[in-house]
C-alpha cells in the first residue's frame, strides 16, 4: 500500500501541544487512523514515541514529514525463535 502525502493545510490551526496522539494527527493531516497505523507498521510516516501503550507524535516531526515527505528509518524487528 502506498500512501499519498496530503498537502499540509496551512489554514488549519496546528495543535497547541508539542505532542499529538493518533487522532490529532489524523484530524490534522487528513490521513485515516488506519493509514497512520499501517505506516507505523511498515516503518514509514512521521517519527513517533510509544510511552507505555500510547502512540505519541511530536508536532515538529509531523510538520517536517508533511513538508518533505521523508520517512523515518525503518527499525528492524527481531524475530522470535
Automatic annotation (TrEMBL):
Which intervals hold domain Helix-turn-helix? 19-68
Tell me the InterPro entries matching this sequence. DNA-bd_dom_put_sf (IPR009061), HTH_17 (IPR041657)
Source superkingdom: Bacteria
This chain's protein is named Helix-turn-helix domain-containing protein
Amino acid at each position: 500500500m502506498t500512501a499519498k502525502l496530503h498537502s499540509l493545510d496551512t489554514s488549519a490551526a496546528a495543535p497547541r501541544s508539542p505532542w499529538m496522539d493518533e487522532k490529532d494527527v489524523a484530524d490534522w493531516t487528513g490521513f485515516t487512523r488506519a493509514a497512520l497505523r499501517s505506516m507505523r507498521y511498515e516503518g514509514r510516516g512521521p517519527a513517533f514515541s510509544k510511552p507505555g501503550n500510547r502512540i505519541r507524535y511530536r508536532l515538529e516531526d509531523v510538520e517536517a514529514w508533511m513538508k518533505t515527505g521523508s520517512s523515518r528509518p525503518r527499525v528492524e524487528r527481531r524475530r522470535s525463535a
